[in-house]
Amino acid sequence: MSRLPKPTSSTKIRPIPSVKPFGSTSENTITFGEIKTKAHEAPPAINKYPTFTANSLRRRSKSVADLTTADKHPSINKCAPFIANRFNKNRRQSKSYSDLTTIVRQPFTRSFKPITERKAPTAGPQNKAFPSTSRVPPLKSGATKTTLVGSKRPAAKSDEGGPKAKAARKIPDWDYKGRFLQLNEKYEQLQNCMKGLQDKANQFESTKEEYEKIQKEHEIDIKTIDSLRRENESKTRKCQELTTSLDELKPAHETLTRNYNSLQNNFDKLNEEFNKYQEQNKNLLEKLNKEKKENIELKEVITLQKSDLINYQTERRVLHNTIQDLKGNIRVFCRIRPPLLSELKQIQCSIEFINENGIEIRKSQESYDQITGKLKEIKSEFTYDKVFAPQSSQEEVFEDLAQLVQSALDGYNVCVFAYGQTGSGKTYTMQGGGGIQKGMIPRTFDLIFKNIAELQRSGWSYTVKASFLEIYNENIRDLLTTKQGQKHDICFNEGAETTVTNLSIQTINSAAELERYMVLAHRNRATAATDFNEHSSRSHAVTKIYLEGTLEDLVYKGSLNLVDLAGSENAKQSVAGDRLTETKNINKSLATLGDVIQHLHHKSRHIPYRNSKLTYLLQSSLGGNSKTLMIVNISPIESCFMESLNSLRFAAKVKQVKIASKRNKMNVTSMKQ
Ligand SMILES: Nc1ncnc2c1ncn2[C@@H]1O[C@H](COP(=O)(O)OP(=O)(O)OP(=O)(O)O)[C@@H](O)[C@H]1O
What Gene3D superfamilies does this protein's entry cite (predicted)? Predict the structure, then answer.
């Protein structure tokens, strides 16, 4: 190249006929040095990348565009800004790439203008070699400016030089120098072009590297997008499942909502009621507190009044029993029964009732008084605590007995026994009949429970127990049981109650219950006897009522012995055998009773209670702390006169006895004696 002569101004520019414009199908092959290429083809090294890059970028742009437009799911949208950035970056790169391809392809898609058409440089030594009309720039070292005129350049422009320029385009074949120079110039132009292309290729290499980097990033993005898509799909599936289950749950939800609303309504109503009740409760509480205060005050008053009541009751008891004592601890009533229908034809005793306490009984004897010549008369006058005429009712008899029942409730031992000959009316007096004929025993039951009910109102509580027995031929028999062969012994401990072994003692809660036991005892007594009337006349029937009253630390223990004695009978009148033995036993026990009373009257140190089962059993009711009432029954028939007289005499003896009784009290603190 250096050996080539430099063009001078004088050098004729000749057209180069072999050089044809690029774009022609057959003649656009350019050969310089070893490089031989076609004008419409880019060099392989250059064209490989743009083609790849362009397609790849197109695909990439398309995939990115698809992603950004097709996938609207939140998970994709999340990365949409990132993808958009990437896409824009790619687009920018694509733009720079298209510039590049434009540049790269430019030389090959355009045909060169003939050198002859080029204007010759205006100055410089090189211009001398070229004609002034030549457009070929001056050849300077490093000067790469090449003006390549495309084939589409208008032909008029090519003809700018006129006929002279047309002549200059063609260098004659013989002008090897000119042609050489022309070729040389072209070569340099191509070399410059190659250098530019090389730069572009380098630039492209860096773009490629960047592109690969971006592609890697893109692949990561795609992977991310894939994973997001998978996640999205899984979430979508989950979402669909949830939607399905939500649809399934909707009816239940609606039912629950309805229930909830109904419950809410109920709750509101209840809440309203609750508030109302709370208000009422508040008012009631206030009232309650007020009443509590009043209650406390009243309790204090009640306590005071209770204490007063106890004092009054104590006083009443003291006074009551003082009166009873004044009346006598052994009291004797005399009752003359009316004659029975069967006895109306019989001669009646002459009985005169002096007053309510005195009685005079007379009987004319068959013998005459030798002095007066009148019929002799047996006349006896007796005074008792009370005398009841034949017309006296059971109620009248019970009036005084009732005082003793109160004493038994006050803690005294009371003994009431009916004495008299057989058929004198003992059983009638003690047991009686129905209605107004009710005897002393059932009336006592009624009064006990009536008084207990009153005492309970002032704080007392009572327990009532009862036993029924009979003493026949000095043997005790429990009348509440039908068991045979039971042996009963009497036990007495000083200061304690008299007790009978194996005896049934029933707790009683009402008068009626007590009466039922009385009827049972009466029945059992009858069952044991072959002839009840005979048997009943020869045994002592004892009904015992145990009373225990409690008020705080105060305990009163009293008892009531209601005894229907066997008929007193003259032994001389009794026939021999069992009847005689019975009579002897009866008389023995009645005599012992008389003895005991006499000893009590004389305040003897030894009282012969144990001489008979009857006195031993009644020991606690005949002794110190007891109140005794004897009802002596008299038959109005004159034939019974002597028996009646004996009974009256016995009762008179008993009447003389004065016993100082004392109450069975325990833990008494405020008792006035
Ligand atoms: N006050 C009276 N009023 C009416 N009738 C009476 C009265 N007293 C007794 N009687 C009658 O006299 C009869 C004999 O009385 P009661 O059986 O009570 O005598 P008693 O003394 O118990 O005889 P016993 O010792 O044999 O048992 C009976 O029919 C009874 O109804």
Answer: Kinesin motor domain
Distance of CA 341 to the CA centre of its chain: 78
For the chain, how many structural domains are there in total?
2
When pLDDT is cut at 50, 70 and 90, the band that residue 659 belongs to is low
Tokens found for residue 354? 């002096």
Q: How far, in Å, from the CA of 598 to the mean position of ligand 1?
A: 28
Can you say whether the dihedral through the CA atoms of 382, 386, 390, 394 is positive or negative?
negative
Pocket test for ligand 1, best of 387, 427, 430 (most atoms within 8 A of CB): 427
Q: What is the pLDDT of residues 512-533, one digit of tens each?
A: 999 999 999 988 876 555 454 5
Distance CA 519, CA 366 (A): 46
- The residues near 610 (Cβ < 8 Å, ≥ 6 apart) are 616
Is the pLDDT at 603 greater than 50, yes or no? yes
Atom of ligand 1 nearest to the CA of 565: 25
What CA–CA distance (Å, rounded) separates 566 from 422? 7
Spatial separation of the C-alpha atoms in residues 580 and 572, rounded to whole Å: 9
Evaluate whether residue 582 is within a structural domain: yes
Between 109 and 356, whose confidence is greater?
A: 356
Q: Is residue 425 annotated as involved in ligand binding?
A: yes
Q: Which of 174, 206, 238 is the last residue of a domain?
A: 206
Residue 325 lies in a domain: no
Distances from the Cα of 346 to the Cαs of 37, 335, 337, 533, in angstroms? 189, 19, 14, 22
pLDDT tens digits, residue range 180-209? 988 999 999 999 999 999 999 998 899 889
Q: ipTM surpassing 0.85, yes or no?
A: yes
Three-state SS for 245-291 is HHHHHHHHHHHHHHHHHHHHHHHHHHHHHHHHHHHHHHHHHHHHHHH
Beta strands 539-551 and 413-420 are unpaired
Q: Which domain holds residue 576?
A: 330-666
Q: Is the CB of 432 under 6 A from ligand 1?
A: no
Asked whether the CA dihedral 54, 57, 63, 68 is positive or negative, the reply is negative
Assigned domain for 544 exists = yes
pLDDT tops 50 at residue 32: no
Are 120 and 135 in contact by the 8 Å Cβ rule? The answer is yes
Distance 388 CA to ligand 1 centre (A): 15
373 is in an annotated binding site: no
Same domain for 514 and 378: yes
- Residue 305 domain flag: no
Contacts of 207 (CB under 8 A, 6+ apart): 53, 93, 96, 97, 100
Distance 101 CA to ligand 1 centre (A): 160
**Where do the DSSP E strands lie in 310-397?**
330-336, 350-353, 358-368, 375-383, 386-388
CA atoms lying within 13 Å on the CB side of residue 85: 8
Q: Are 465 and 546 in contact (CB under 8 A)?
A: yes
507 neighbors 522 (Cβ within 8 angstroms):
no
List the CATH number of the domain containing 361.
3.40.850.10
Range of weakest confidence among 26-40, 91-105, 374-388, 448-462:
26-40
Both structure tokens of 391: 């017309």
Average pLDDT of the chain? 75
Angle at Cα 261 formed by Cα 259 and Cα 266, nearest 5°? 90
